[in-house]
Write a structure and sequence with these properties.
single chain, alpha/beta, seven-stranded mixed sheet, five-stranded mixed sheet, binds fe (ii) ion
Amino acid sequence: MVRKVWFILAAALCISCGKLEIKNMLFPYAEDVNTRVAESLGWNDKAGVTTLTVPEDDYRFYACTDIHIEDSRPENFAAMVQKEKADEKSAFYLVLGDLLFGKEHMEWVDETMSAVGNDPGFVIAGNHDIFYGGWSQWLDLFHSSTYYFFVQTPSANDIYIMLDSANGTLGEKQLAWLEGVFATRRPGCRHCIVGVHTNMFRTDASQLPSTNFTLEETYRLTALFSKNNVDTVLSGHDHFRDVSVYNGVTYITLDQIKDGTSNASYMIFDMGQCVDYQFVSCK
Ligand SMILES: [Fe+2]
């Protein structure tokens, strides 16, 4: 309850100082997600599917979310990327949305990701990334927010599915695409990891309805994830960690990695026969 009150007060302050766009906070725009998904899938058709090849069946990846850039370059995020690139066991990292808090400097994320080191980062949009028309900059920098990629090990193939939930819904177009990916790409893969900004399970109502899944969509998605043997669903949005297991699927909400926050952390996943994970504090 206290978090909710603080959130509402902070949101009011941010709206008044131009950090948040009230339209997107109060109303879901399902037509926007369908437009974005069409643009993402159009890019995918041109770029093709990424497959990372790793030398052992056991490998590692890092994940973070909610960088929420304001006026300075993100130090926690840069430190995580630097550590990931120096980690020989790690193959890539995920960034689960909300790069921005205000209107500017999405390019700082791209610049950090492009700095020294080869491991790729896979990014999806959060609700803050489409405020103030941010999607057009997203397309310029990251090209897609609906895609999948594979990690090929000597004896297994893992699939990672990244979803656009920036309006608090996948929309019908993306849902149909997801069902197609599960039907045609999931079979034969060892692990399936889903990355989506919006968290499925909430410990309180700290976010506004326009950026959350409806109960009906939550039921539909969780049933789909269970039916297709998804191992883990990773999300952000709530800014506080939570681990829930529901119908055979582990749902992890990550802490934010935003600079200056007391709970800033990221995660490291060790992939092998099982999916092991740890939270790593940025302090
Ligand atoms: Fe956020």
